[in-house]
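Sequence of Putative basigin (Lutzomyia longipalpis).
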Amino acid sequence: MEHHKLIPFLRYSLALLLFLAISAQGDLVPNYDHKEAKLKVFEIKQPLVLFCNVTEPGDHEIHWSRNGTSVDKVAELKGRHTILKSEYKLVIDRAQESDAGLYTCSLPRGQSKDINVVANVAVKLPSNMAVVEGERLAIQCIVVGTDPIINWTILDNLTSSEGVISYLPDEKNVKDAILVIESARLTDRGNYSCEANNLATEHRITKPAVAVTYVRVKGKLAALWPFLGICAEVFILCAIILVYEKRRNKADPDESDTDQSPEQKKKRMISKNYD
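Predicted 3D structure, token representation.
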């Protein structure tokens, strides 16, 4: 009977000892950029530095994992990551878009903290583009970053130009990354901009990424003007040559009379009288 009474006491004592052991390790404090969302944002191609500070003084060993796998076993991090044990830091050199994910720092006795790591967004467009009236216009917003959301501003208005504009995903399946006008019109010329947002911009850690391109729409006959110009030049040149040849031929008899000797002129006169 006494053994049954001891069991709850032993359980309570064990739980208390476990709590005290965990408390002795201190609390983990990650370097969040946004504490409520547990977010950390990094720039692509820049070092990514994560750390979990331990509130309790002492020599603590921090274990790091990404999406549940120890960082030492993540193939794409091989040769690019360093664990600074004394500073409780994980440093990833030349951070890539694919380095985003759920990172976890943990102590040996079970206490852990998650860090949602995302790549900041960046976009790129050509400075200007040209299309012939009636042809297909496709503008691709080249975007990098974690889970980007694309929005287009067309001719300084947030419209889709009466349904003639459509949007397609890119090769990375980013929604609305490509703006398409199947048959461009002269009125479609102007500024087109794409804006990218994600969790980082949503929580105002960073600003939205924006790029602008100017689209020129050429008339259908615009491509013929260079050809017509060449034809006009050839016509004028031929006319000049023709006029020159006619004038030269007209002047030839007079020049032949001038070039003859007196004896030749005399023979020619006799020949004319004889005739």
